Task: structure prediction
Amino acid sequence: MKTKSLTYEQQQKRLSQIFVLPGFFLITLIMVGVAIYSFDLSFRNIELLSGSDSSNYVGFATYRTVLSNTETLTVIKNSLIWVFTGTFFVVFLGVLTGYLVSDSKNTISRLSRAFMLVPWVMPGVVVAGLWKWMYNTQNGLINELFMKIGIFEKGFPFLGTPETALYAVSAVIIWRLFPMFALITAASIQSIDTSLYEAGRVDGINGFQEFFYIIIPHIKYQVMTMGITNLIWIMNNLVFVNVMTKGGPLYYSEIIPVYMYKLGFQYGKLSQAAVVTVLNLFLLSIFCVIYFIIYRRNQKVD
Amino acid sequence: MNKNKSNKMLMLIIKDAAAIGILLIVLIPLVWLISAGFKTQSDIQQIPIKIFPSTVTLKPFYDVWLDKTGSGTMWLRYFFNTVKIASLTTLIVISFGTMIGYGLARYKLKGSGIILNILLIAQLFTGPALLIPVYVVIAKIGLYDTHTGLILVLLVFQVPFASWLSYSNFQNLPKELEQAAFLDGCSPLGAFLRITLPLSRISISTVGLMSLLLTWSEYPFSVALLENQRNLTISIGLARFITAFNVYWNQMAAASIIIGLPVLLILIFTQRYFVQGMMAGAIK
Result:
């Protein structure tokens, strides 16, 4: 009876609180707890396999161990190449092809758009396995193709060669992400008011001017937010390198998530892995801030 | 005028060529994979390569999924493990996501803005960034190598995006219907259950299918948190298969086809909403 005396607003408020707060706090608690815990781990020196399982605090000693390891520097260099090559090509190819298939009346464009999400929704492991086979020297499709057009005489081990391994895996993540980027870009271009094009035509602008003065300003923020999202996805990707090369040969294709995985689960060096986690979280936060700034500005424009 | 027309023709040709080019880049690897699932072992090893099998066989599917003496028992187990994990995760993610999204959309609580921003940022920290501390925490509370532990972790990472999707959906739903129901003596909870939920069927299923998609293909946490053969998921089973054998590509393809099929079905139903969702997330 008591609730009946409350106004609609008050009842709605109570319901909203009951709906939102428990779930939200639970999730935040776990996430924050886990993040803090990685800091805690990074100031200890826990090594499961060596037997010297000292769980005492050691200050920055583990940080020094990790940062003085040449492997770490290689991994950071690899990750930068991996992230920026990947993001650059996903955005570049995504915008370019998105523009080219944005015609809503063209049947071929429509057919092509219908399949653009397929690489992105395929399970990562399936894509990794498929491409590992595509690159195979004996009976892979890519080597066969190169041999047929006469570039190679025999199969080239893309995944087994230090100079090409990282780029070969990069190509796979680009294949997975750029069609989706193109699809979103195309949808964004289609949402442009056609009167803008007509006005442009009256002013006598050509196709290039149309692209740079009408289309680009309209899709700019969308491309930026999607670009940062893709960058974070690429940065956070474990499955492709782990399944296709395991970071090899040696550690020529090893990137941060793979390094964390290897340190933690193969060597049992949990504290060292936690140090890498903290460094990685720091990098991620920078990109999140950038994402957030663009997102806010985007909202204001709307 | 004539030059203008030939320019237009050229542009049209470039556009068609680009569309066909992308279509081929996307489809050729997949066609190759699908046809490999129906090839015999000698067909797979044959050089030069043929895209389509010379004799169609179902043996790879039998070997992977049904052969009781070989891997068949394992793969079926992986499959049902994944079905179990994915359906439970999806159900809980839908419940939490719908509730949080609805609450935030219907009443501006103190700190609603901050909550939304935190959920937005949390979406970006998914994936293997927190793999190591998550593993240690899960091991500490005794949930290592259990499905419960994996589901718990996946929940934490999926509820933020689910809340956001439902939040934007509920915002587009008019309040007036609920208010009218209230005047007729229905409590806000009753109005939510009887009016709002049925009206949001499509958006709720979109959230559910997205969650299903993510869980079905999940790799980093499954590989870190599960160990025993009996507990593995299809992603891990396939990853192990790929790294262990370099010859049985037809069996890999047969496994991949069954794993990929549900995902493609989901895609057919959600494609439209998905693009809308991505646009809303990125534009608004």
Q: What stands out?
A: Chain B has a mean pLDDT of 84. The two ends of chain B are 41 Å apart (CA to CA).
